[in-house]
Amino acid sequence: QVQLVESGGGLVQAGGSLRLSCAASGMTISSYSIGWYRQAPGKQRELVASMTSSGKTYYGDSVKGRFTISRDNAKNAVYLQMNILKPEDTAVYYCWRVGPVWGQGTQVTVSS
């Protein structure tokens, strides 16, 4: 069974950092494009960052220079390092794999 499980969300003050993790099972993440989406209340789900199977990365304009996506093939996991967090980064963050396959989401709340 293909599954993505996120962890690492929480409450942080503006300017702080969080690292989200996504553990994959039932598949080999290095074979797929994989990444992170987020959805804030009342807004559409948006792509935050992604990485192709070859390692090419993409970042949404609002997170460029602050967020970094990475992948650990040995652990079959993908990560999102989030720095200089802003209140507008508050959302549920979802791990995603092309297909699509979605994780259950993890809440990130940034207080001002």
What do these coordinates show?
With 112 residues, this protein is mostly beta strands. Helix content is 0%, strand content 53%. It is built from no helices and eleven strands. Strands 2, 4, 5, 6, 9, 10 and 11 form a seven-stranded mixed β-sheet that branches. The chain has strands at 3-7, 10-13, 18-25, 34-39, 46-51, 57-59, 67-72, 77-82, 91-97, 101-102, 106-111. The radius of gyration is 13 Å and the shape is globular. A hairpin with a 3-residue loop joins β9 and β10 (101-102).
Quick rundown:
This protein is mainly β.
Range of helix content:
under 10%
Give the overall shape: globular
Number of strands: 11
Calculate the terminal CA-CA distance, rounded to whole Å.
40 Å
Give me the strand/helix succession: EEEEEEEEEEE
- Average pLDDT across residues? 97
Give the helix tally: 0
**Gyration radius from CA atoms, angstroms:** 13 Å
Helical/strand content category: mainly beta
Describe the main β-sheet briefly.
Answer: 7 strands, mixed
Strand-residue proportion: over 45%
Low-confidence stretches: none
Keywords:
four-stranded antiparallel beta sheet; 112 residues; 53% strand; single chain; mainly beta
SSE arrangement:
Layout: E1 3-7, E2 10-13, E3 18-25, E4 34-39, E5 46-51, E6 57-59, E7 67-72, E8 77-82, E9 91-97, E10 101-102, E11 106-111
Parallel strand pairs: 2-11
Antiparallel strand pairs: 1-3, 3-8, 4-5, 4-9, 5-6, 7-8, 9-10, 9-11
